[in-house]
Structure formats: C-alpha cells, structure tokens
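Please produce the structure of this protein holding zinc ion.
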Amino acid sequence: MGKQWRCFHCDAVFRSERQARIHFGIDQYQMPACKLSQAEGHLIDYIRRLEVDLELFRRESHEILLAAYSTEIAARSIERIAEERGYDKGVSEAYQQALKDFPPISPEQRKVIDAAVGYVNSGSWRDLHNLDEAVAALKAEGEKL
Ligand SMILES: [Zn+2]
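Below is the modeled complex.
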C-alpha cells in the first residue's frame, strides 16, 4: 500500500501527494480545503480577499515605491543630522552669549574666590555671611589677596 494522507478535519484520505497538497495547502500553516469553505464563508469571497491582499502587497513592494521608501529614509537621516547640528549650533551660541553676559573672572578675582573657598572649606566659615566677609577674614589672617 502506497503512502496516504488523512485529513483529521474531514477524514478524507489522499493517496497522491498532489491531491493532498491541494487539500492541505502548501504547508501545515495553511487552512485545509474542507475548513476553507466553512471558516471563510464562500470560497469566492475568500479568493477575492486574497486577491486584494496580493494587490496591496504588489503595490507596496513595487520597485518605484521601494525606491521612494529608500529616498525617504535617506531624507530623514539628513534631517536628523541637520537638527543635531542646529542643536549643537544653538548650544555653541548660548555658550558664547553666556561668556558675553558673564565675562570670565580675572586672575585676581579667581585668587580671592579660591582663597575664600579654601577658608570656608577649612571650617572657618560659621561666622561669615558672604564673600566680602570671607575676604576680610582672610586679610585679617594675613593672606595676600
Ligand atoms: Zn479536510
């Protein structure tokens, strides 16, 4: 006895692989012919829906459309790079503006601030209320400012 295939839905037995494929579909994920007509209503409706799906797939994978997708992706990359450069430029401009608004401190000012910070960090800050008082306290201790 040759090989045979039995459908566990309708119990039909197929003795040729070709007939079995027609009933079962191209692989195990397809709906068998006996279930198609039950589950999908009229077979013609099912076929028409498949035709629509196939047409949509063909349109979406058309060469021109794929080229358009590719161009769109490239354009988005360019936009993103431009945005990032714009952001960097904005940050750079804000920094330059901050330098104008708040000019760098002079070496003399830096010396006073460092000494005052050192004084505060040494724990001798409790009676002081601002930088001027810290400078005065340092001068009183003989620091050269
Ligand atoms: Zn069947």
